[in-house]
Amino acid sequence: MTDFDWQPLLLTFRLATTTTLLLLLVGIPLAGWLAFTRFRFKPVVEAVISLPLVLPPSVLGFYFLLAFNPTGFLGEKLLSWFDLRLLFTFEGLVVASIFYSLPFMVHPVQAGLENLPVSLREASYTLGKSRRETFFRVLLPNIKPSLLTGLVLSFAHTIGEFGLVLMIGGNLPGQTRVASVAIYDEVELLHYGAANAYALLLLVISFGILLTVYAINKRWVIF
Amino acid sequence: MGDILMPMIHLQARMNLLFASGPAPLDVDFKLAAGSLTGLCGPSGSGKTTLLRILAGLTMPESGLIRVGDRIWLDTAQRMQLPTQQRKVGMVFQDAALFPNMTVRQNVEFAAENRRDSLVDELLSLVNLVNLADRKPATLSGGQRQRVALIRALARRPDVLLLDEPFSALDYETRQQLLNELVRLHRQFGTTTVLVSHHQDEIQRVADRILELNQGKVTDIGSPSVAGKITPVPIMGTIQEVQVEETTTQLRIRLTDNLVVLNVPSGAQEWQIGETIVVSLGTETLTRKAN
């Protein structure tokens, strides 16, 4: 247990929290747009969002590696315009995690919105309310279980990241050395005790989160 | 409203619909008098709902013109379409479409201009929902839900009130009660009302005029008295007060929410306070108050 350190765990939760909060800002409007748009190329957008579900994280990691590279076009612009380095930094992990966990936020919220009776939306319009007001005051409050599911799945999925972090984040303590990477590292060094401590904590916390969600969602079904 | 006033609504619309018998055009052109209550009936799938949705701006016809008072709501020739939000319509949906996250009061407040709007309380008491104001829609009965939907639509202060078979899922007695309340509110708020129903015989007693939609065409079956069939309508009431005079007995009867005074010959029968009675009304016994 000598090598155990709270830092990787704290970093994991910081990454998951930041990613989830940003995903709320990005994912909910995106899900709302997808649920109601008649855009011709909607299937293309949906397919792109769902890619992280099927691709190995190393594929995503590989392309992020190319894109974030400071000598590449995007990486260079980010660096010169915003002084933002995304390779081997916490910020880079956040950006990559947003793409990586996007389907976990978008899918439940989109499905929740699509399953609401159309008449709710239309009733609100006939009562003079704009699309935006309808979305925030009528639609979102009535898909709380979907929102909670999206929130928690995104959070849990980000906790579970490994391959992607390894490819674009590396193993910098306090910056990119999240718990999943720390476990791998400790096992490589044959520090089974420390690896077990990280692993067990992740297991217990993740289980606790999921259990809470399913328990709450069961109560919310009849609202 | 037998006499023709200035047409409040003029609706012209054409669009292709898919009927049970195959595709056929919906092609209508009619006017509705201001403050009238029009019953719209016809076989299911004949486009009744579509017609209401066109009026509300929820469905766009291929071509059409809607004029309400002196405002143009839709003129496809000018590529002009007033969004639903800017049309002063109140719509009551078949499924009530109450917002599950809000209480009864919040649902009505949502439609009012502001939360302090005194109309909210007035409407709640008009349909006897004050006691249920803090309940969520999921805990209400079907009839109560439609009552909330009705007053929510009125809280918007609409010029045009559209009802899409709102009472069809309710039992006979509740349906009659709600129809009575609808007529009362329709008169009180002076809306131009269109009520879609497949119970033609039932709306005949409340409507000023009946339109029938069949195969995409509207036929005017005229005002109910012209249509001929007048069915007496039984209304349940409770006796509140009995005053026995020499020749007549005055009964104060509560019919739904109204207190009605009825004079009946004395001696023929004993009347008791609290007793439930059925009053039968025929439309021929009613005379319209001159405007």
UniProtKB/TrEMBL annotation, chain A:
For this UniProt entry, which segments traverse the membrane? 12-36, 48-66, 86-106, 147-169, 189-216
Start and end residues of each ABC transmembrane type-1 domain? 9-213
Q: Which GO terms describe its molecular function?
A: molybdate ion transmembrane transporter activity
The superkingdom of the source organism is Bacteria
Under Gene3D superfamilies, the record lists: MetI-like
What InterPro entries does the record point to? MetI-like (IPR000515), MetI-like_sf (IPR035906), ModB_ABC (IPR011867)
- Tell me the first and last residues of the signal peptide: none
| Residue ranges of coiled coil | none
PANTHER family, sorted: MOLYBDENUM TRANSPORT SYSTEM PERMEASE, MOLYBDENUM TRANSPORT SYSTEM PERMEASE PROTEIN MODB
Q: What is this protein called?
A: Molybdenum transport system permease
Organism for this UniProt entry: Larkinella punicea
From TrEMBL, chain B:
Q: Where is the ABC transporter domain?
A: 9-240
Molecular function (GO) terms listed?
ATP binding; ATP hydrolysis activity
Q: What span is annotated as the signal peptide, if there is one? A: none
Spell out the Gene3D superfamilies in the cross-references: P-loop containing nucleotide triphosphate hydrolases (3.40.50.300)
Q: Which InterPro entries match?
A: AAA+_ATPase (IPR003593), ABC_SmlMolc_Importer (IPR050093), ABC_transporter-like_ATP-bd (IPR003439), ABC_transporter-like_CS (IPR017871), P-loop_NTPase (IPR027417)
Keywords attached to this entry: ATP-binding, Nucleotide-binding, Transport
Q: Which SUPFAM superfamilies match?
A: P-loop containing nucleoside triphosphate hydrolases
Coiled-coil spans in chain: none
Q: What is this protein called?
A: ATP-binding cassette domain-containing protein
